[in-house]
Specification:
By secondary structure, the chain is mainly α. The chain is built from four helices and no strands. 74% of the residues lie in helices and 0% in strands.
Amino acid sequence: MNPAILELLTELEETPDLTLDWTNTRQRIVDLHRDAETFDERGLVLKFYVTLMNSVESLKLVADIDAFKEARRKDYNALRISESTNGRM
C-alpha cells in the first residue's frame, strides 16, 4: 500500500471535522487517486473522497451548496472514469 494513502487515512481519522482543511485534502485525494498503482488503492482513495465530501456537505462548510454539489458531481465522475481506465486519462 502506498504510504501516502496510509498517511492521509491516519490524518483523516485524527482530525476533528471542523478543523479539516477540506480543499487541500480534496486535492491530496485527487493526486493520490491519480498516482494509485492498483484498483484497490484507487477504490480506497475514492472512499476517502466520498467521506470527505459527505462531511463538507453535512457540516455546511460551503456557502453555495448547489455549486458545491455540482463541482462534487463532476469531481466524482472524473475520478470514476479515471478509475475505470486504470488512471490513464
